[in-house]
Structure formats: C-alpha cells, structure tokens
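Re: the pair you flagged

First of the two:
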Amino acid sequence: MATNQSITSYAAFLKALLSDRERFFEEVVEGVGLGSKLRYAVFTIIGLAGFFGLVAGAYSGPAQAASAGIKLPFLFFATFAVCFPAFFVVQVLVGSRLRLLQVAVLVFGALALTSVLLAAFVPITAFFLITGANYYFQHLLNIAIASVAGLFGMYALHEGLSVVCEKRGVYPRKALTIMRAWAVLFAFVGIQLAWSLRPFLGDRNQPFQVFGRYQGNFYAAIIYAVNKLLHGDETPSGASVHDRGRRQDSRAVARQRDPNDRGDRGLFAAHSADDLQVGAGETDSGGEAREGVALSEEHHRSLVGRADPKQRIGLRALEEVAY
C-alpha cells in the first residue's frame, strides 16, 4: 500500500498525520521518501507552532508576539536535540533495527502532529485574547493547550512504534516500555527549556524582554497563577512575584552583610557605644543615638566629614539637642 500511494506532497503528509498515520509509519519503515517527510515535518513545526506562539504572545504586543513565534519552534528543536541521542542509542541496544533517519522522522512526525494541534487551538486562544480574558487565565489556557497537544503527539509516536513492532518485526516490544519512559523525560526537558526561554505570553505592565530573570520554577508559577485566578486578579500588579522575591532575597543578603543597617539612620547607628554618651557620661547599651545623646568631639568631626548634605543637617540637629 505504501509503495502505490506514497506521500509525495505536503497536503498528503498532513492528511497522513491526521487520518492515516499507519500509512505514514509503514512508509517510514520501508524508507520511502524519508528526506521529504523530514522537510515537511520541520516546515510544519516552524509554521504552525510558530503561529500558535505568535497569537499567544500577541497578548503583550507585537514584539512579544514575534518573540514567542520564534521561541516556540526553537523549544521543539532544542528538546529534540537534547533527548534524541539517548533515545536512539537505547533503542539500538534493545534490538531496534530502525536506522537513525527513520527514528528521527518518526519523532519529528510526532512533533509535527503536536504543532498541527496547537494551530487548531489558535481560534480558542484568539477568542479569549479578543474578549479580554485576564493574564492568569490566558497563561493557564496556553499551558493546558500545549500539554494536550504534546500528550497527543507522544501518543501518536507510541502508536506508530506499536504498528512497526507488530507488523514489521523491526522494533522489539520491550522497547515500547523504554519509549514511554523517554516520553516522560522528553516532557520534563521541554518544561525546563520552556521555563528558561520564558516569557512567551509576556506582561503588559512590564517592558518587553526576550528572556525573563525570574526565580522559582515552572510548577510554583502554575500554583501562583491558579491562586491569582481564583482570587479574581486580572493582571500582575507591578513587578511579578519572582521579581519581588528576588528583591526580598537581595535585602536579606544586605542585612546579613550589615546587621546595623537602618536605612537613612545607619550613619548614626553603626558606631560603637564608646563614641556615644548619654547624660553625664553614661553609655547607651544599644549603641544608638537617642534623645540626650552626645557624640565625642573627635568622632563628631569624622562623621561630619563623611556625611552627605542631608546627613549633615541631621548631625547639626543632633548637636543642638545634645548641647
């Protein structure tokens, strides 16, 4: 069947992926048109996955749309590059007789099917974008769509390898178990890469940026978005939760470096109790300048020399109180 009705056009390639995958897999096993199938798959990933990214990123404007349209296909190719070598070597070790190009075409076919499904969901994404759905809903919606499309693509790959195993005898059944474990690994690698390439949706309240500098992880971000959606928040207020966490961490580090730091009052509080006198020569145990505190003459001159104009005003006021 594959020889008489070989896939010779892009339209036939898409039709085979959607409604005649058995024919597609049999042609791959027979080695028919592997180069053209690989080109069609790459074109599909770039065009349709990029189209989905373009629409999703349009939430934050044209620049973010173009960025997401480029990054989403790159995510597919980068995940393939990371995961495929281990997959192919293990398949060979357990007895697979499929060649490198054949396995690559099978995997790219699954990714192409994932891209077709992403493009099919574009009208839904565009509908909520036009009708003003909030940031967190759009964020979770796009993740859900990508998850469903990815799962279906991996299912199609498993289905194809099962056909190869049963009808052609060039793929051992025990390798199917390995393929399932590899699919899970592929998903985790893809999630981590997507987190590294963020943002895809972007934030209207923030300037455009190609890559974010957030802390945390993908799973914490999902929980945060669900919580915000349930509380009815429309958009991130000011800086994102990751930026706020980063600033809090920076302040914590600063406090560890200077435990006596009191903001604008640090110039007075950072000096030892030997330099401060309370009343008739009594030392303040807290080491801070309070009402009735006198600075030694020598240290007073050193403070005035180092202080900026605002701090000099404070020193003069302190001097008037003390004397």
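Second of the two:
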Amino acid sequence: MFSKSKCPKCGARNSKERMTCAACGAPLALAPAKGQPAEVPLEGNPNLAVNMWLQTRMFLLVVLLFGILYGVITGIGTWRGAGSAVIYIIIAFAFLGIQYLIGPSIVGRAMKIKWVSEKEEPQLHQMVAELSEKANLPKPRVGISQLAIPNAFAFGRTQRDGRVCVTRGILNLLNRDELRAVLGHEISHIKHRDMVIITLISAIPLIMYWIALSMMFSGVFGGRRQGGGGYAALIGLGAFLLYFITNLLVLYGSRIREYQADLGSVNLGSMPHHLASALYKLVYGNARFKGSKELKRVEGVKAFFLNDPSQAWSEIKELSQIDRDMSGTIDYDELMELRQKKLRLGTGDKMMELFTTHPNMLKRIKHLSTLTV
C-alpha cells in the first residue's frame, strides 16, 4: 500500500491509517492522472519507477552514441588503417581530459564565485550539509556567485571535489523551502556524476567534427595526388551529418540528467511544488535580464545552471497558465491541477527544446507534478 506518513502538501507527519493530513486536510494517497505513471508503493523510494525509466533512457542513449562511434571508427579503420582511426579518439579524449581538469577554474572565473565560510552564510552551509548527508556525499564547497542573475549550479571533477554555488540574485528571490529544493537538485547532479557523464559523451560529437574536417580536407587537397578524394569528401559529409545528430543526442542526455536531478531533489526530502515554484520564479527573474551584458557573460556556461536563462522570456507566457491565483508562486494545489492536464506544446516549442540543454519548463514542472515525497 502507499506510504501515507508524510503529507505531500505541508510535510506534516501522520499516522499510516489516516487518509487525509491532520494539519492541512490534503489527501495522503493521490490517484495518478490518466496517462501518467502510477505512484510507486515502495517504502525506500516511491519514485523508483520514474528513476528506472530515466536511467534506461540514458543507458540506451549512451549505447547509441558509442555504437555510432564504433561504426564510424571501424569503417575508417577498414579503409585507411586502424592507426588513422584511433588517433581521432586519442586526440578527442586528450582534449576533453584537459578541459575536465581545468574546467572548474574556468567556471569559477566566469561565474565570479566567492567561496564562503559557515560564519558568513550559516543557513546556506546548514542546508548543504544536511542534504549532502542525506545523499551520502562529502559536504561540497559552498560558494556565492556575485552575478545578479538568479540561478544556482554545481560542478566538480569528482564527488569529493563537489562545489555548490548560488548567485546573489537567487538568495534575494527564493524562500527557504524553495532554496533547499534547488540545492537538492544541484547536490543530485554531484551524486549522479553528471559532469563526468556529459563530458564523456561530448567527446563523440567532437570526434565526428574532427573526422569530418580531416576527410573534407583530404578529399579537396589530397584527392588528386593520392586517389580516392571523392570517397574521402563523401565520408566527410557523412561525418558532418553525424556531428549534428550526436550533438542533438548529447543535448537530449543533458535534459535527461536535469529530470533526474529534479527527482533527486524530491528524494532528498524537498516537496515537488517547492522546486516547481523555484523554477517558476527563476523564469521570471531571468527574463528581466533579456539582452543584458550579464546574460551574454554566462552564455558559455549556462548549461551548468538550474534552468536556461536565455529561454526564460519565451517560457513566461506558457507558465502563466499554472499560477491561477497570480501569487508569483506555484503551490501544491496548482501543481496537482497541472497533473490532471494534458500538455499541448506548439511545434516551435518542441523544435526549440531539441537544441537546448534543459527541458521545456512547462514539461519539467508537469514532470514534477507526478513525483511523490
């Protein structure tokens, strides 16, 4: 049977025999909407089914990407010899290895991070310590970015090198519960080793790009002397196509990791409507920076953010339909109402999502409505 000990609306503890919360009257067992996955009645992790589905999608994506790489490298190795094929892999992973090592320092400079002590930000440190303990992680370093644009991000080479940061803007925008939900999302990225995973699969489009350039160059300038220039140019064109396709697949993988981090925040004890409300506020907060120098400054590192600030302006219109009472937040009842609705995204919104590192915000909040505490 479903666990009813914790209210999904207010978080109050109730006896397992109760059908409604003694504190707020909210139902303690919620029926799933038509077409939505049922809440999973497992004591350890009520969202295990969602997690398994996300992990399966990610596994299949990784298999597909490395399958493409294997096919291309095998084909080139057969045609030009194994040595010329392997060199592309060595160069790509060497380049990404350097990027992986120096990446944290680059992010730190771009985001204007100041690392803060427990004396300076006791509440922030306390929330990070509690969440990392729940996630069975060493406590990450805590920093505050001096950027005014409201957001949060996490990075680091390993779980022991984890770093969680918030901007000045987000500290002035969110309440304590919303900020805790955001920090839970970022700590989940560290727990899931997302930086390592995305860096690893990003090597594949890079390899395709170098193969395409090499083959096109060989076909145009070396074809007459060596023969087979037409074949080389054709392979180069095919590699360019695969470069485009694998880039889209990596972006899809990034969106899966965002969904999984949202789930991770809920599994760490945050209410889904608190994270939904935080995302809603961030969209409005980021939209105010449209066309600003600060938004342009973070363009190269926005993949680290909780949401994509450059998409905020276009997301405002579709999100306004959720906030029925125009309070500027998304409460439990509004999130549950969204759960019963069927989303209708325009073709433009669907196409735009293909080229972004973050899911469409309305879809993302809809996904949160299906999760349980």
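Residues 54-106+194-369 form one domain.

-B.
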